């Protein structure tokens, strides 16, 4: 029951964020993630973050998790990666 309620509340908050409304969310400290390194962030959250169109930030999404309920994702900045060595590009 609690997980279902968390999902419902998360979906409501996500809809309001995507409409540009101001909502009260206790966001965690911003974290830097790359496709190869994302310490402290679950893999489904990182995958969802990299699917977003971050041409205009902030941008929001969510991930449903059966154990933790519902995770809201906010991408607030995008940094270009350092140049990769040729062997890593492939």
Q: Could you explain how this protein is built, in words?
A:
This protein is of the alpha+beta class and 90 residues long. It is built from three helices and two strands. Strands 1-2 form a two-stranded antiparallel ribbon. A hairpin with a 3-residue loop joins strand 1 and strand 2 (69-75).
Largest sheet, strands/sense/barrel: 2 strands, antiparallel
Radius of gyration: 15 Å
Mean pLDDT over the residues: 89
**Cα distance, first to last residue?**
46 Å
Strand content: 15-25%
What is the string of helix and strand elements? HHEEH
Q: Strand pairing plus helix content: what structural class?
A: alpha+beta
User: Could you estimate the helical fraction of the residues in percent?
Assistant: 25-40%
The count of DSSP E runs of length 2 or more, i.e. the number of strands, is: 2
Strand order of the largest sheet: 1-2
Q: Secondary-structure map with pairings?
A:
Blueprint: H1 2-18, H2 43-51, E1 59-65, E2 69-75, H3 86-89
Antiparallel strand pairs: 1-2
Short recap of the structure:
The chain is of the alpha+beta class and 90 residues long. It is built from three helices and two strands.
Descriptive terms for the model:
33% helix; 3 helices; two-stranded antiparallel sheet
């Amino acid at each position: 029951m609690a997980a279902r309620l968390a999902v419902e509340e998360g979906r409501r908050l996500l809809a309001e964020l995507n409409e540009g409304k101001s909502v009260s969310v206790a966001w965690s400290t911003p974290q830097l993630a790359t496709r190869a390194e994302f310490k402290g962030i679950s893999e489904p959250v990182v995958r969802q973050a990299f699917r977003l169109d971050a041409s205009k930030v902030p941008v929001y999404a969510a991930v449903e998790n059966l154990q933790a309920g519902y995770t809201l994702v906010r991408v607030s900045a995008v940094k270009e990666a350092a140049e990769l060595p040729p062997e890593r590009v492939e």
